[in-house]
Amino acid sequence: MLQRLGRFLLTGFANSAVGWAVIFAGLWAGLSGLAANAAGFGVGLALSFTLNRHYVFGVRGAVSAREIGRFLAAFAWHMR
Predict the structure, then answer these.
(1) pTM for the whole thing?
(2) pLDDT the model gives residue 79
(3) Which of 79, 76, 20, 80 lies closest to 47, judged by CA?
(4) What are the residue ranges of helices labelled H in the chain?
(5) Distant-in-sequence, close-in-space partners of 8: CB < 8 Å, separation ≥ 6
(6) How far is the C-alpha of 49 from the C-alpha of 53, rounded, in Å?
(7) What are the CB-based long-range contacts (under 8 Å, 24+) for 40-47?
């Protein structure tokens, strides 16, 4: 349980770091703040799904639409 918590925290840190890097790279490349933020948000969301699926929960194999839907529903719930 503690190992999974550690992996979850590390995933959150990596997700935040990559998201910020994409935002700043976008701004540096001349994107508007909105476009850079959207890009960072999208990349961060995809990375979060991938790392949580594989690294935190150890799920392998094909990704299902239901799995993505559940992830997005949980994400939306926490964003409200």
Answers:
(1) 0.87
(2) 84
(3) 20
(4) 2-28, 33-51, 65-79
(5) 52, 56
(6) 6
(7) 43/18, 43/19, 44/15, 44/16, 44/18, 44/19, 45/75, 47/14, 47/15, 47/18, 47/19
Query: For residues 44 and 18, is the Cβ–Cβ distance under 8 A?
Result: yes
How do residues 20-74 score in pLDDT, each as one tens digit?
Answer: 999 999 999 999 999 999 999 999 999 999 999 999 999 999 999 999 999 999 9
Owner of token pair 């948000």: 41
d(CA 7, CA 51): 9
* Rounded-to-integer distance, Cα 29 and Cα 45, Å: 21
**Would you call 14 exposed, middle or buried from its count of C-beta atoms within 10 A (0-12, 13-18, 19+)?**
middle
Confidence band, pLDDT 50/70/90 cuts, at residue 16: very high
